[in-house]
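Q: Can someone sanity-check these two? First one:
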Amino acid sequence: MELDKKMKLGRLTWPIMIEMFLAFAIGTSDTLMVSRISDDAVAVVGFSNQFFNAVIVVFMLVASGAGILIANRLGAGDAYAARKLAIVSVVLTGAIGLVVSLLMVFGAGQIAGWLGMPPDIRPLANDYMSIVGGGMIFTAIGNALSTAVRNTGNTRSPMYIAIMMNVVHIFLNALFIFGLLGFPKWGLFGVALSTLFVRAASVVLLLYVFRSAFGGRIGFREFLRPDWSRSREILRIGWPLSMNGGSWQLSQLAITGLIGVMGAQQLAARTYMNTMESFAFTIGWSFAMAVQILIAYLFGQGKLREAYRSAYRAMGYGMAFVLFNTALMLLFRKQIITFFTADPWIVDMAIVLLWLNLILQPGKMLNMALGQSIVAVGDSRYMMKISIPSQWLVSVGLAYLLGIRLGWGLYGVYAGMILDEYIRGAVLYLRWRHHRKRGLFADHGDLRAGALAPAKGGLQA
């Protein structure tokens, strides 16, 4: 079957990896170009993007739950149900995105204050957050469209669109920031406009692909009459996943707020480190996303043994790539960091944090591979129950205790993040093995209720 050929770990992973690297490249180009404006501008972009990432997780409430179910239904041979689920996902996510956009257009300044953004950079943040935040409806719809398309096994089309948008974004940044070809030098305002345009254009292209992703072409009238009965099963899978992801993003916002208390230099250093760490994170998350699609599909087919083993394969490959990538950054650490900033304090701090990153990234990979595997079989509630307490008590708690109270600064922040990743990773590993020993997911309530019931029934020992 053609779909079976698409649903291979390698074939799913590499387009996702390229797409995510290009998304990372957009963020890097923003940080690099904005760094030519000022370190304050970099701090605004970094702080704002932490908030926007937290908002994007809300969209996952629908998009990710639908994505898992789409792959599962396709594995079970029910393309009609997959189509209906995808349409509901786009409509619901778009509605949430519209509400968020309106809140950002009229309340960006107040939100920046609530988040604890340093007062001296709030005026700069207000314009950036209102423009980029006002376009969150495009981010929401784009997220739903790309998730649905990827879960049909078509991971290449979103990649091609990302390539085009990456080129356009860099070009527009050059025009709007530096005033090339006679354009005015708009600085950070120009970065915001460029981001808004690229996200809107991405939606148009993704919608074109989406309409043909489920066999017969989807008519626009179908978006006006979604099958709302499907929303319940989407939310049953999606809400714990969204709560978990939202909690993680909010915990990162809390940590960023704590770093903001430490000072502008520390905040800028963390922003640069986020950019560099994304290099390793992107590779690991690509394997995790691919294995989630694969396991949901295999589970729909009833190929449970293969689904179980796929988690370990993704973890192994991902770990190797992540460690290699992190080691490469360490090898060229001086050249990479000084490319972003000449501040000697930030350079010295970032070099030390890169060494800590060598410990952090394997823990992240363990978490990502097993976490997405557990989610793919409907066990998202367990991951939520384990992850949220660890994120706040360990990661945020130690960031405050070690970083501020004991004066360790960014070292204390990283100590908390490292311990949090390994605690959650170890618990998820035990959970995955627990499912195997108990008959490979047979005892999970959501599965008995039919949320992700294997098409063939029974278990493969």
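And here is the second, same format, sequence then tokens:
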Amino acid sequence: MLNNIGLPGILLIAVVVLVLFGRGKISSLMGEVGKGITSFKKGINEGEKELADDKDVVESEIVADSDTTKDKV
């Protein structure tokens, strides 16, 4: 059923949405969507940075442990 929606169908849906909600409401809604996407990307980048920092800490602890093990032998 949804496979048969072409360009005219999409345009009709867009016109109906525009009439129902108005240009101002749609504009503010799209602004909020943009802010949400930006916030999501920022969170992903912060998470990746945190994982990289944790990995560096673990690697430095492993190197420190292996150095102390060599000294004892």
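A (reply): Looked at the second one. DSSP finds one helix and no strands in the chain. The mean pLDDT is 84.
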